[in-house]
Amino acid sequence: MNAREKAIVVLEARIGHTFQDRDLLERALTHPSVTEGARPTRHYERLEFLGDRVLGLLTAERLLALYPNEREGALSPRLAQLVNGQACARVARRIDLGPALRLSAGESKSGGRDKSTILGDAVEALMAAIYIDGDLDTARAFFMEAWSEEFAAIGEARALDPKTELQQWAQGRGLPLPIYEVIRRTGPDHAPEFVVQVTVNGLEPEQGRGRSRQAAEKAAAIEMLLKREGPK
């Protein structure tokens, strides 16, 4: 048994699920770089697409249970914190996913087993594989354990105002500050509705609605936060 095979055994023990479909597990652990310059090889991108949705569902389900009195506007920033690429990468490191990955020689030599983008994508693919090989309850059991530290972190710290969080996210990547623009105002003076568009360099603009300009700006910021990881 080589080092990667041993890592897969350890990984299955940590996620609490032994795969019946070994090809499915192998696909979930195979980075697209393996297909470069070689015969066609199935990799994890399609599974990642499904895993992102399974993760979003389980996270939303858990947030509703933890915060039964919170409104959607307060839950969305928490959702964004729990499902973004950095959170997924932290989970991947905690379950020691890197050594089990199948990478091209070049990607492996360049440190691919500890790259946050690769780890984040791979843990989403793994989530999908667990869901397919088992069922939603199996995926939920893995999620509840693997994401427990992420939930603890958001429970300990008060959620940032979404505009502040978006600003910090942009600044942390050397991007200009988000720009907010009122693009429509409807309704009578006593009950107006504002539509605000927020623009962040490099991302598609997002819109939010609210009974005040400030509320609409916050709603737009939340929508942008949910998209902030950008295209995969």
Features:
232 residues, mainly alpha, three-stranded antiparallel β-sheet, elongated
Shape type: elongated
Largest sheet: 3 strands, antiparallel
Residue share in helix:
55-70%
Write down the secondary-structure element order.
HHHHHHHHHHEEEH
What is the CA-CA span between the terminal residues? 33 Å
Low-confidence stretches: none
Number of separate helices: 11
What's the oligomerization state? Answer: single chain
Radius of gyration: 20 Å
Mean pLDDT: 87
Counted beta strands:
3
Report the sheet-strand fraction. 5-15%
Adjacency order of strands in the biggest sheet: 1-2-3
Structural class assignment: mainly alpha
Describe the structure.
With 232 residues, this protein is mainly alpha-helical. 57% of the residues lie in helices and 9% in strands. A 3-stranded antiparallel sheet has the order 1-2-3. Helix 3 (45-66) crosses helix 4 (72-83).
Layout of helices and strands:
Elements: H1 3-15, H2 22-28, H3 45-66, H4 72-83, H5 85-94, H6 105-109, H7 116-133, H8 136-146, H9 148-156, H10 162-172, E1 179-186, E2 193-199, E3 206-210, H11 213-227
Antiparallel strand pairs: 1-2, 2-3
Please sum up the structure shown.
The protein is mainly alpha-helical.
